[in-house]
Structure formats: C-alpha cells, structure tokens
Amino acid sequence: MVKEFRKADARYPDGMPKVVDHQARRIQVADAVQELITEQGLDRVTVARTASTAGVSVGHVQHYFPTKDEMLLFTHERVVRQILDRVSALGERATRQRLPIRDVVTEGLVEWLPVDPHRRSAHRVTLAFLGRTVDNPQLAQAHAETGRLIRSMLATAVHNGKECGEVPDDTDQDLAALELHSLAEGLALQLGSDPDAATSRTALALVSARVQAVFPGRCRQYE
Fold first, then answer.
1. Candidates 1.25.10.10, 3.40.630.30, 1.10.10.60, 1.10.10.10; correct CATH number of 1-66?
2. Residues 104/207, Cβ–Cβ less than 8 Å
3. Residue 17 pLDDT greater than 90, yes or no
4. What are the structural domain ranges in the chain?
5. Are the CB atoms for 108 and 90 separated by under 8 Å?
C-alpha cells in the first residue's frame, strides 16, 4: 500500500493532480476562432489553423469541439455574452449617474453595430454564424433565441420608460422592441457588408433618432 501511494504521489510532485479549467480552454479556442474569422473569414477556419492560432494541439481542439459548427456556436455565444455584459454595465452606470432610459437603450443598441475594430470583429462572427444557420437547425435555434432575448430586453426598457414618463402610455412595447431591434440589425448588416452604404456616424444618428421617437418624454424616476 505504501509503495502504491508513493508511486502515485510521484506523478504529482506538488502532492495534488493538476486541475484543468475546461471553460478556459474552450475560451482559448473560441478566441482563436474569432481571430481567424475576423482576419481571414469563416472558410479559413479549420481545426488545424484554429489549433495553431490558439497555440494548442489539434487533439485539444477536437476534444472540446468535435465539429466546426460546435466551435462556431460556442464562439458566437461568447461574443453575445460579452455584448450583453457590456449592456448590463450600461444599465448599472445609468443608475449611478441617473441617466434616462433612452440613453441606455441607444448605447445598448450601438453595442451591436460594427462601428469600431472590436465591434467589427464581433459582427464578423455574427455574420459567419448567421450564414451557417441556413443548414443547421441547432445554430438557427440559437440565433432565434438571441433575437428573442434582445427584443425582451428592449420591451422591458420600453415598459420601464412608460413608468418613468419617457414613453407614451399607448405605446406597444413589443412592437417598439421589434422596430428598434430590426433597425439595429439592419444597420449592422449594412455596415458590415457594405460600409459605403452608411457611415458609422449616420448609423449612430439613425439609432439615436429612432430611440428618441420611442422615448420622447422626460425621465421622472430621479425626481
């Protein structure tokens, strides 16, 4: 028994087996996928290139993501979560600074627009993901769920806007949410696929004007 213990102990010089952070390893691969999509496009994303970019073995990538679509799904979910985290931070900042809801909605929608290198990279992943949803029901379902979540958040913002006086009482919150989401999604596609169709400044102005139309009133929640 003592010999067996010593033999096992010799495998772990520090006295404990190494704890593997599987989520961190998935993120490492996802970051490599995003880098490849941003710089070279989805067609250049292969297991071998992803492994090389991430600095890991091909077996490592295949262990966590058996298929290309699984890599793309996780990468897309990571990008969406990062955007939603920034939107949540906007809400917290607005509360501290006593900003009107319209400002939070405007800045939140802009987070989805490819108006700077960081957001252009995220949008490239979104475009690549969208293209794959045509032939993959699982990816299509994930895309639909993301859209429903965004519209739900916007509908909640419109509802809260009614309570604080920024939004007229007769506004249909679900319709307003759909309108704002569609505007942001359409502008993102235009900016991402045809930058000459509209400048970033024009896109920001359009978002601001439409949000102002939905939230025309004065915020009374801090009075």
1. 1.10.10.60
2. no
3. no
4. 1-66, 67-223
5. yes
Q: How many Å from the N-terminal Cα to the C-terminal Cα in the chain?
A: 74
Predicted confidence (pLDDT) at residue 181 exceeds the cutoff of 80? yes
Residue 21: band (very low, low, confident or very high) from pLDDT cuts 50, 70, 90: confident
pTM as predicted: 0.85
Average pLDDT, the chain: 89
